[in-house]
Design goal:
Helices cover 81% and strands 0% of the residues. The chain is an all-alpha fold. The protein has one domain: Orthogonal Bundle (MetI-like fold), CATH 1.10.3720. Helix 6 runs antiparallel to helix 7. It is elongated and about 80 Å long.
């Protein structure tokens, strides 16, 4: 192949020459983002429900104390991970674990960092989603004789989950892009691939444009998929038609 002479030719050349590396970097990026977001959402979901857990002052101390301790630990964890940069968290967790004698490789460490970071942010989203449900529904459940746990599982959480989906989508897209900072602990994701390939011909600008294009395509596709999921979860608006029909009948 002739030596590239312009920006477009260099980008095509890099994709042809290092296509396998870009592909592997994309897979690693997706793996970390997907695994970290899913497990982090579960962690955040548990913490969000825990933060909303109400304990009656009339309950015995041995029931109130564990809840208070768990909430206190959860609040500290959330504050630490919401108030520090992800790149610093990656360095502290990776090198901290290795200093403690725990032999962890870069990719599992990257997933752990993503999980903990996602869990901290999603816990607040879940809590807000729960609080967005009309309090009258909780009171109605109590009036019907339902337990607090049953109200949470059967009434509150299904509605809260519908409100949480858009933020979960945003969190995934954020994680997809934030994996780029994990190259500091040696993860060979897209940013590291661009850094490596760009150094061969000193074409950093062209290499970074290549991964910018990949990031854009990934985020565009997943964003559209999440919009379809959100639309699907809203369901049909047949009830509105029924109301209109009744109004017309009157």
């Amino acid at each position: 192949m002739a030596q590239p002479t312009n920006l477009f030719e260099w980008m095509v050349f890099l994709f042809q020459e290092y296509g396998e590396m870009f592909w592997q970097g994309t897979l690693v990026t997706l793996y970390i983002a997907i695994a970290g977001t899913i497990v982090g959402f579960v962690l955040g979901f548990v913490l969000g429900v825990l933060s909303d857990l109400q304990v009656s002052p009339h309950d015995p101390w041995y029931r109130r104390l564990p809840v208070w301790i768990l909430k206190w630990i959860g609040d500290i964890y959330i504050e630490i991970f919401r108030d520090t940069p992800m790149i610093v968290q990656a360095m502290v967790i990776y090198y901290g674990l290795r200093s403690a004698g725990i032999e962890i490789t870069p990719v599992p460490a990257a997933i752990l960092v993503t999980v903990l970071n996602t869990g901290a942010y999603m816990s607040e989203t879940v809590r807000a989603g729960i609080n967005s449900v009309d309090p009258g529904q909780r009171e109605g459940g109590l009036a019907l004789g339902m337990t607090t746990m049953k109200i949470m599982v059967k009434v509150i959480l299904p509605q809260a989950l519908r409100n949480i989906i858009p933020e979960m989508a945003n969190m995934f897209l954020t994680n997809l892009k934030m994996t780029s900072v994990l190259n500091v602990i040696g993860v060979t994701e897209l940013f590291m691939v661009a850094k490596t390939t760009g150094a061969v011909y000193y074409k950093y600008f062209e290499a970074y444009l290549c991964i910018a294009l990949i990031y854009f395509v990934l985020c565009f596709v997943f964003n559209r998929l999440f919009l379809l999921l959100e639309k699907k979860m809203k369901g049909k608006a047949d009830y509105a038609l029924a109301v209109e029909y009744m109004s017309d009948g009157e």
